[in-house]
TrEMBL record:
<dbReference type="InterPro" id="IPR013525">
    <property type="entry name" value="ABC2_TM"/>
</dbReference>
<dbReference type="Pfam" id="PF01061">
    <property type="entry name" value="ABC2_membrane"/>
</dbReference>
<feature type="transmembrane region" description="Helical">
    <location>
        <begin position="114"/>
        <end position="136"/>
    </location>
</feature>
<feature type="transmembrane region" description="Helical">
    <location>
        <begin position="231"/>
        <end position="252"/>
    </location>
</feature>
<dbReference type="InterPro" id="IPR051328">
    <property type="entry name" value="T7SS_ABC-Transporter"/>
</dbReference>
<feature type="transmembrane region" description="Helical">
    <location>
        <begin position="148"/>
        <end position="174"/>
    </location>
</feature>
<protein>
    <submittedName>
        <fullName>ABC transporter permease</fullName>
    </submittedName>
</protein>
<keyword id="KW-0472">Membrane</keyword>
<feature type="transmembrane region" description="Helical">
    <location>
        <begin position="38"/>
        <end position="58"/>
    </location>
</feature>
<feature type="transmembrane region" description="Helical">
    <location>
        <begin position="186"/>
        <end position="211"/>
    </location>
</feature>
<dbReference type="InterPro" id="IPR000412">
    <property type="entry name" value="ABC_2_transport"/>
</dbReference>
<feature type="domain" description="ABC-2 type transporter transmembrane">
    <location>
        <begin position="22"/>
        <end position="225"/>
    </location>
</feature>
<feature type="transmembrane region" description="Helical">
    <location>
        <begin position="70"/>
        <end position="93"/>
    </location>
</feature>
<keyword id="KW-0046">Antibiotic resistance</keyword>
<keyword id="KW-0812">Transmembrane</keyword>
<keyword id="KW-1133">Transmembrane helix</keyword>
Amino acid sequence: MTTSTIDPTARKVPPLGGMNLTVLRIELMRMLRNRRTIIFTLVLPAALMLSFGGQAGWDDPVGSGNVGAYILLSMALYGAALTAAAGGSMVALERALGWSRQLRLTPLHPVAYIMMKTFVALVMGALAIGAVNLIGILQGKAEMPEHIWIAGAALGLVCTLTFAALGVFVGYVVPGENAMQILGPGLALLSFLGGLFIPLSQYAHAVRLIAYWTPMYGVAEVVRSPLTHELPWYAVVNAVGWFALFVAGAAWRMSKDTARV
């Protein structure tokens, strides 16, 4: 009787580390079935846009548009950031349920897993941006050229990568459902400090000095720059620096987590 042995090195690695359309579709459907996600993605940003609408000074000029356009870009960024962070933080719940451990026993590469989370976060962020822009169009109060409208939406989507990375990082640090309980209020506070809800010119000098160091300040300036035509160099450094920091933190925690198997 002869026995055959299987050479482990002969095992083929799946293309793209195991990332495929089927898994992406499952991830997206799982997010869209979550009522809390729908509230964060569509209802909350649109409600904020409606609540700010029609106030005094809405038609005052700002750059190539008006205050309404300035607020629209800000609310779209907030909604996308909150949604992307929520999508990234789902790794905390998956770790608590043991799902991430099961995935590590499959050929799915950890990098492919994070890439899928990032893609899902971008899709959900795009829905949030679309919801706010739709409300802005229906209101008819936001005024800016079409190319600026498109550029602001595109930059907002790119900047959501920062908060998707933040969500993944927090998801690997904080256990279970506590991740979003920290991210929700935390992002709201960062938005106030970063000048997303209230212009920094209305803050005291000491508060402004703190705001320049917060994660929301840089991305907010980047997203609104096509409208305002102003983009300080330190805002770009802020945006790039926080993105790199959150990605590094997420990669570090992911490597620590995967090393346990």
